[in-house]
Every structure is written in structure tokens, then in C-alpha cells.
């Protein structure tokens, strides 16, 4: 009697164990909030994966730095505490200058060039990630970086002592080269940085100006087309290896689509965000001659500094991008 009751119970337990062993549930952390097109793209990616794998792999996207802070995302994925993450690639610049190759002025002045730069540098970047047991899935750029100020930026002397918020170290160096006083601030901390008077100005994109309601703090956006820095989405290699082949393939296909879609979204978001900035009273303009000249000089200094720090592999990757442009 006992066995006949126990057997179906055991069977049921065995079946559900088999099902759990197959279906993987991943957590993915991103510092960017739901208003960001990056997060919307990443959430779409997660939906695509769930659909293509019939739920065999679900990815729970934790946005806005809710679960893990920006600088802890890569270490957490490396340890396997979470399986996936999205970060601003250039925050890794301390590890290797190759990670800030997309924050150099005069290198890639538009989306097509930025994409060619990504293709040329992806092998080196992927290799660096692989050395830590990580695998990049896709990368998507922010719109070109520009300068938000409380007054019209007409004279480079205005940078003197100006406290400018920057999203990474290279932008801080750039601000210093201009005579300003940089502060590195997370995107989500921008409103506090302005409202507590810690900064007077910032360098970021139209998109971030829009999602952080820049019009509450500043009135001018100088669309200086400085560079198009990227976010990178990556996973723990061991987590990937544990998936069956079909699931791996579905994941990689969805990643390819996410990259394509993300680049398109970035272009569109730039146009939309510029319009929203203007609707909210921000004057959007291109830099005048004097300001352009100062930005160019500060950029050349920044580039020379990068070259002095970058190893051969990084320099070669940049050169291969340049050779490709010449073809
Ligand atoms: N927005 C992010 C990164 C670059 C951008 O355009 C930020 O400002 O933090």
C-alpha cells in the first residue's frame, strides 16, 4: 500500500526536478533606469530569449542599480552571483585603456564610424572579458556626448573653474584639459549633484539629458558630437556553458538582434531627446568657432594621453579601424 502511494509522489518529484534542472533563471543587473532606451532594449532582449527558448531561459532584468551598484556589476557577474550585467564600458578604463577607446574625440564622429570602431575593437575587448570568465553579448552606443550649461557656452574661458559632471575618467580628463573642475557622477545621481550645488554643468548625451530632466538645472545644450560611448552587455561564461546548445543558440541570436535594434534605438532616441530638450526650454546649438577650437585642443591632449597609456594590442585595434575607414 505504501509503495503505491509513494511511487507516484517520487515520480512527480523526479519530474519537477528534471524540469528545474533544464530551465535556467538568470538575473541581469543594469545601472540604468527604465526610462533609458538601453534598458528598454535589454528588457526586450530578455523577452525575446524567454520566447525563443519557450521559457527554458528567463532573464530577470534588475534596472536602475536596484540590485547591484554600477561598479559591483562586473565583479558580481565574474563571481557568478548574477549571470549577466550591463555596464558603461568605459568605466573599466582603469583595467585597460582599450575599454575607453570609444571615449576619444575625433575617432568616430557618427554611428557608422562608431559601429566600425566596435567591430574593430570587439575581438580585443572580448579577449579581455574572456580572461575573467566573461562573455560579451552585445554593445550599444549612447548618442554623441555634448555639454549642458546654465548659460550659453560662447567662450572657452567659461570652462575655467566650472564644476562639470562626467560619467567616466576620460571625460574627467577632458574637462581638466579645458580648465574645468570635473566630478565623476553616476547617471542616477545627476539630479542630486545639481540640486545640492555640487556641479554647474555636465557632459552626457541628449538621451541622458532627457531622462534626467536636464531642464530642471540647466538651460543650454551644446551638441558638440564629442564621442559615442557604449554600454556592454555580458554574461558569466560558466552560466552559458550550462545551457543546452539550442538555448545557447537562441540566446546568441537574440543578442545579435538586440545589438542591431539598440543601434537603431540610439539614433531615434537622439532625435526624440533633442526635441524633448527643446520643448522643455533648453537651447540646443552647435559649438561656435572658439569653443570648437578649445574642444579640439583638449581632445588632442586627451588622445595623446590615451596613446601613451594604451598597449600595442589596443593601438593595433584602433589602427585596424582607421585602415578600414581608409578603404
Ligand atoms: N549617459 C550615461 C553614459 C553616457 C550617456 O550618454 C551617463 O551620462 O552616465
TrEMBL record:
It holds the Pfam family DctP. The keyword Acetylation does not apply. GO terms for biological process: transmembrane transport. It comes from the Bacteria. CDD domains: PBP2_TRAP_BpDctp6_7. Residues 1-23 form the signal peptide. Keywords: Signal. The keyword Acetylation does not apply. InterPro entries: DctP_fam, TRAP_DctP_sf. This is TRAP-type C4-dicarboxylate transport system, substrate-binding protein. The lineage of its organism: Bacteria, Pseudomonadati, Pseudomonadota, Gammaproteobacteria, Oceanospirillales.
Amino acid at each position: 500500500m505504501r509503495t503505491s502511494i509513494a511511487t507516484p509522489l517520487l515520480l512527480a518529484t523526479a519530474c519537477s526536478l528534471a524540469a528545474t534542472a533544464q530551465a535556467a533563471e538568470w538575473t541581469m543587473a543594469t545601472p540604468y533606469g527604465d526610462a533609458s532606451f538601453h534598458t528598454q532594449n535589454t528588457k526586450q532582449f530578455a523577452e525575446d530569449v524567454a520566447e525563443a527558448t519557450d521559457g527554458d531561459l528567463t532573464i530577470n532584468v534588475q534596472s536602475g542599480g536596484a540590485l547591484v551598484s554600477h561598479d559591483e556589476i562586473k565583479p558580481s557577474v565574474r563571481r557568478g552571483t548574477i549571470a549577466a550585467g550591463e555596464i558603461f564600458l568605459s568605466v573599466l578604463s582603469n583595467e585597460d585603456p582599450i575599454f575607453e577607446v570609444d571615449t576619444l574625440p575625433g575617432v568616430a564622429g557618427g554611428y557608422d564610424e562608431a559601429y566600425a570602431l566596435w567591430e574593430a575593437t570587439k575581438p580585443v575587448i572580448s579577449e579581455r572579458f574572456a580572461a575573467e570568465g566573461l562573455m560579451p553579448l552585445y554593445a550599444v552606443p549612447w548618442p554623441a556626448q555634448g555639454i549642458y550649461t546654465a548659460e550659453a557656452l560662447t567662450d572657452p574661458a567659461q570652462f575655467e573653474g566650472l564644476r562639470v559632471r562626467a560619467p567616466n575618467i576620460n571625460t574627467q580628463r577632458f574637462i581638466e584639459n579645458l580648465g574645468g573642475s570635473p566630478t565623476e557622477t553616476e547617471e542616477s545621481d545627476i539630479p542630486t549633484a545639481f540640486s545640492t550645488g555640487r556641479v554647474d554643468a555636465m557632459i552626457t548625451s541628449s538621451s541622458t539629458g532627457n531622462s534626467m530632466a536636464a531642464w530642471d538645472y540647466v538651460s543650454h545644450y551644446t551638441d558638440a558630437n564629442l564621442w559615442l560611448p557604449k554600454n556592454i552587455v555580458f554574461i558569466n561564461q560558466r552560466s552559458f556553458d550550462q545551457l543546452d546548445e539550442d538555448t545557447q543558440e537562441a540566446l546568441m541570436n537574440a543578442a545579435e538582434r538586440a545589438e542591431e535594434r539598440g543601434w537603431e534605438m540610439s539614433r531615434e532616441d537622439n532625435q526624440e531627446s533633442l526635441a524633448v530638450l527643446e520643448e522643455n526650454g533648453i537651447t540646443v546649438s552647435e559649438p561656435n568657432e572658439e569653443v570648437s577650437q578649445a574642444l579640439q585642443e583638449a581632445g588632442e591632449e586627451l588622445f595623446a594621453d590615451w596613446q601613451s597609456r594604451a598597449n600595442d594590442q589596443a593601438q593595433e585595434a584602433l589602427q585596424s579601424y582607421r585602415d578600414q575607414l581608409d578603404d
